[in-house]
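CORE FACILITY INTAKE
Project code: CF-77B
Contact: R.S. (postdoc)
Sample description: multi-component assembly, two entities in total
Requested service: structural model of the whole complex
Turnaround: standard
Below are the sequence entries exactly as provided by the requester. Do not edit them.
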Amino acid sequence: MALLDVQGLQTYFHTEYGLVKAADGVTFHVNQGEIIGLVGESGCGKSVSILSVMRLITSPPGETVGGKVIFDGKDLLKYKPNGREMRAIRGSKLTMIFQEPMSSLNPVLTISRQLTETLELHLDMDKRAAKERAIELLRMVGVPDAANRVDDYPHQFSGGMRQRVMIAMALSCNPAIIFADEPTTAVDVTTQAQLLELMKDLVTRLNTALVIVTHNLGVVARYAERIYVMYAGRIIESGRSEDIFGNPRHPYTIGLLHSVPKLGERHGTRKLIPIYGLPPDLINMPPTCAFLPRCTEKIGRCEKEPWPELRAVGDDHYISCYVDIKGK
Amino acid sequence: MDEEAKMPENPVVPTPNDIISIEPAPPRRSEWRRFARVFFGRKLYLVGFIIVVIIILTAIFAPVLTPYDPEKNDLTSRLQTPNAEHLLGTDQLGRDILTRIVYGARVSLIIGFSAVFASTIVGTIMGLAAAHYGGWVFAIIMRIADVLMALPAIILMMLIAGMLKGGGIWIVVFALGFGGIAPMARMMCGQALSVKQNDYIMAARAVGMSNWRIMFTQIFPNAYPPLIVGLTMGIGGVVLGEAGLSFLGIGVQAPTPSWGGMVMDGQRFLLTNPLLSLMPGVAIMFLVFGFNMVGDGVRDAIDPRLRGVI
């Protein structure tokens, strides 16, 4: 039984130009202690999906209109987005790390205040205990001189250090799942590696599940155990990390992997092949597979039938495609 | 040895412990010290501050500073020019002008502070509520504010002070404070709305804080600098407003000494004894100047970006 089971999640945005189906039938699950990668290009609905799970979609204009989000045996979509039940889960059982460490901390409150806020809110700790726990958390995420730095303000921390604080905040109440929304996009490459290594180390130690949302295939390749590939608001391929990278079956995934340079490959041995065209306009989605206009493998059936459902092509390996490409 | 052999087998990824720096933390500079450095760094702000302090001390120690009663008539010594006993002379009822100015500081400050505080508190709550609920609550509060701001402040004050006849200090406070609510509410609402867009508000929601908690613990601390500035600047304006109302005879009523009222009382003797009107006028000028300078200083010390906005 999966820890978190998301089925057919639909989140739409009402805009002046029309209805944007940012997530249209997203299905995925997270098991305990697992590291999951959710990849896709910008605007494919990765962030929207996890914000919908957290019930953090701003309404209006956004609205989660369909699907199920089963966590701990309960459907989170049945709760009010800001109701007591949802607030009790947010920040304690399900937590989030945001993309921009520079702006995700409140500039006028000390680090201590921001960390203890969560502890006091969810664990009913008194001020002193919360502060000690805050210092301990900062130590855990590798902030040097934690006992003194805890009283600093965010502007006295560097970007990488702030992201560590965000990680500490996400871990503070021993969550079941941490959603990391592009956690390393805003920091430089060296810091990225440190942060990812740190997160992996911590979630393994605490047996917490981690969902990494990213457009960086390198990040998920190294850390994720299972990967979901998203395109135009849907999951189009999912499977174990080694299957996705070693034996991708969906034309989009194959295209993605062909367009990424690999370290150690000599110049000239392999040409990078881009995916031609642009992602579809989410307002005017075609009735067929949304990848069709860009697809190099299309067959007659693709033009006539609606977007295919996910089907198994291997052990725990699913694709949403009529064509089955093998041996590529 | 060739190049390859020197390369490590695996890239070394530092563990958290590797990156602990050994540099000592920079000395902590308190926010207050930074504030004081900017605030007292410019002479003009310092002068304003000293003026305000002197006026406040004068108001507190009024009975010690002068031997006379500000309200007791002494018709045998009316309309005296400055002399050793009455440094600024006496008015048409024989009261010492300096004494009345000294006591008048009390009235001005009490009215100034309470009107501004009252309008700040009410305006802040209204502004936060409008930003928090949005929708029709926002529309109603902001439209009311628009209507109030469309009326010239002095007309609004005269209307209220005139309707609530009686002339007690608190009626004046109410009249002056009421006029200050709308701008305060608008400013707070605007601030709150812009702060609300920040990522850390989303982060606060993501840790499960309720909307009101976010409003007061996350948004308010980020939105209050203009409030402090508005508050200090507002005192000068309110004192001026009080003087205006008293000059028109609908402010603080005789015999309570009020600077505006003294200017009015003295105008009849402007040609024979100009000090009667002039000196309370000078006092008003100093107080307003002092508070405006303090307001500017506070603004620059809290948030220099606000220069030109408020």
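Facility notes:
- The two ends of chain A are 34 Å apart (CA to CA).
- The first strand of chain A starts at residue 4 and ends at 15.
Invoice: internal transfer
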